[in-house]
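Ticket 4471: requesting a sanity check on a complex prediction with inosinic acid. Repro inputs:
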Amino acid sequence: MPVTAVVGAQWGDEGKGKITDLLAQEADVVIRYQGGNNAGHTVVNQHGTFKLHLVPSGIFNPSALCIVGPGMVVNLEVLCEELANLEAHGISTANLRVSDRAHLLMPWHTLLDRLDERERGRQKLGTTGQGVGPAYADKVARHGIQVYEVRDERRFRARVAHELETKNKVIERFGDAPLDAIAVADRVLRAAATLGDRIADTLPLVEHAVRTDARVLLEGQLGAMRDLDWGIYPYVTSSNPLAGGASIGAGIPARCITKVIGVVKAYSTAVGEGPFPTEMKGRDGDALREMANEYGATTGRPRRVGWFDAVAARHAHRLNAFTEIAVTKLDVLGAYETIPFCVAYELDGRRTTDMPPTQVLERATPIYETCTGWRTALDSVGDRAHLPAEARQYLAKIEQTVGAPIGMVGIGPERAAILL
Ligand code: IMP
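Returned structure tokens:
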């Protein structure tokens, strides 16, 4: 490994959970470095099917240390519920640590996220409504509350009351009921007490891991197209899913990240608003969505679906310098006789493989090449060399257009259904 970042190379939901779950089996430390419970990593393993929102996928490896990193915004109540569910399935959460520098996602953030979306009306962003944007906004505006602050109850209560003075004015202006400072502080303090000494300074742990060449896995949420700086702003999340974000968000010096795995689906999906050039609408889109069960893990929203977009994945590679790509859900494309593959965009009469800014991207039309389908199930394939020739050609096309070699290939939901 030693320090490997697993990042999304599309719009999110690329199947990173599946890849990190596999790699986490061999990891000593697994760190989530950005985002909050907007994430929904679906993990299928011998314990069952789990939708992880805040907890790193390494939780299924009893010897891995799992860190909710300082770059995250953490809803402590949601975290406690998630831990309780894992414990109920017999999975120990004793090895989890929550960075005391992470920011608290407070009940007002969730409320303000929904109010903000309502206020935007037709221009809504399509957020997950979990409060992630407002929590990061407070962090940047220096109104955030860090996790360690729960340790001083009196001061914490005062902070909550103070923040709510202004937040409640906004909430009431929207016609909603104000939040009660005592009740809010009680809820968060109760959750913090449940976590106990799992709230910790994680830097010494991470530093020790790096110094001793431990295998560290950095688990990203979402994908490059939803990166705050490089995605389709404003239809982005409020943090940096790119590998660059992993350094700050996990507390790992940038030069210590040795491997970056970019995860792509063999086609494209997106939840939320914003341009999506290769989107399939109507019946074709519905058919793919149903066949591949493309519904959001956090919100249950139907995902928008489309063909593979090499411009988007190449954009992600330019920003992440993938040492390898992992392709997921290749099996799904077995249903098609021919598969359109977007190699470039046409923009104002010009062909380009550069990713334009959002408003310009709205005008781009995909230029497709047609790949031949393989028309067979892949369940019995145990080796990449035994994939049908057309499937291998499809993978070669991804490598050639994105510019990075393919390492892993997912051909089914189970942990075993990954060709290495
Ligand atoms: P937020 O992160 O909830 O603020 O949402 C911002 C954008 O990112 C919206 O388009 C969401 O649909 C999208 N988004 C957030 N989390 C996920 C995820 O885990 N998978 C896919 N899309 C997501």
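Notes from triage: The mean pLDDT is 96. Leaving this open until the requester confirms.
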